Amino acid sequence: MNYDAPTHIAIFAKVSEYTLICATVALFAIAAIAPAHSATPVEVPSVTVKYDASKANTESGALELYGRLMFAARQVCPSDESQYLVLVVQSHQCQKEAVARAVSQLHNRRLVEIAAAHSNRG
Questions:
Q1: What is the pTM for the complete model shown?
Q2: How far apart are CA 4 and CA 22, in angstroms?
Q3: Is the pLDDT of residue 35 over 90?
Q4: CB proximity list for 81: less than 8 A, separation 6 or greater
Q5: Per the domain annotation, does 1 fall within a domain?
Q6: Which residue from 54, 67, 80, 93 lies 20 to 30 Å from 18 (Cα-Cα)?
Q7: In whole numbers, what is the pLDDT of the chain averaged over residues?
Q8: What are the residues whose beta carbons fall under 8 Å from the beta carbon of 43, sequence distance 6 or more?
Q9: 68 occurs within a structural domain
């Protein structure tokens, strides 16, 4: 089946003692998530990334989508502009996990290959 309509993916992050990141398809409701040690819900920042599924099946389209997922992850994760190495590392881990979660939910072979190549480079 050929779907020409753009599809959406949402990336969201939660920060507690450790940075935890999740991504989900925007068709699902993004619920407020509470840290394990707190009874108060915390709003989870999210970004919706629109994409055309047919374009994402091409090499150039998958590369563009991967770049957009990385950009969205930087938006929802804590800033990596810190003098403290631990915060920089947490931010990078958050971004890596956000993109990996989004890629795994899209089920796009080309996107998986691009993510794997990027991950192997460090």
A1: 0.65
A2: 27
A3: no
A4: none
A5: no
A6: 67
A7: 74
A8: 32
A9: yes
Q: Are 69 and 99 in contact (CB under 8 A)?
A: yes
**Cβ neighbour number for residue 73 with a 10 Å cutoff:** 27
Residues 6+ apart with CB under 8 A from 100: 115, 119
Q: Are 111 and 85 in contact (CB under 8 A)?
A: no
What are the structure tokens assigned to 79, written together? 């800033």
Place of tokens 């958050």: 94
The DSSP string of the chain is ----SEEEEEEEEEESSSEEEEEEETTS----B--TT-SS-BPPPEEEEEEEHHHHTSHHHHHHHHHHHHHHHHHHSPPS--S-HHHHHHHHHHHHHHHHHHHHHHT-HHHHHHHHHHHHH-
What are the strands of the beta sheet with 6-15, ordered from one edge? Answer: 19-25, 6-15, 46-52
Residue range of the domain that includes 57: 6-121
Q: Are 24 and 106 in contact (CB under 8 A)?
A: no
Statement: residue 8 has pLDDT above 90 = no
